[in-house]
Amino acid sequence: MISSRVLKIRKRIALVAHDHKKKDLLEWAEFNKAVLAKHELIATGTTGKMLEENLDRPIRQMLSGPLGGDQQIGAMIAQGEIDVLIFFWDPMEAQPHDPDVKALLRLATVWNIPVAMDRASSDFLMTSPLMHTEYEAIIPDYSDYVKRKI
User: Fold this and answer.
1) Looking at residue 10, which CATH number applies to its domain?
2) Handedness of CA 120, 102, 33, 139 (dihedral sign)
3) Helix H segments across 56-118?
4) Any catalytic annotation for residue 70?
5) Catalytic site residue from 19, 24, 56, 70
6) Which domain holds residue 37?
7) CA distances from 9 to 12, 27, 134 (A)
8) Around 131, how many Cα atoms within 13 Å sit in the side-chain half-sphere?
9) pTM assigned to the model
């Protein structure tokens, strides 16, 4: 059985950045301000505050990542409330909440949502024609897996 969900024209975009990548994300967001204005933005704590100030628009703010914000975003992905994840993560710095980060990326893959993890992939994602139209995302069938676990 194939199931899907429709990503509407106005996407719900989660924006997350590790401490050493916040400046990069802010610069990227400023450069893409006009495109981002067409979408609903959700972010983890500090990143959300910084984006709201720099973009001069409301950002739905979750908790800070280490306090559970990554898990909140992950839950929203599982509930179909996030369409795109842009996560500027720091591959050179150990994160105290690394298991949460891995869980977030895992959920994005499980639910087949587009993920960008740096400027280049974010640019490609935001300039894709699919970002500006409805898109039917196929959701993998996990029914056999769920039955196995019972």
Assistant:
1) 3.40.50.1380
2) positive
3) 69-78, 98-110
4) yes
5) 70
6) 3-149
7) 10, 24, 5
8) 21
9) 0.92
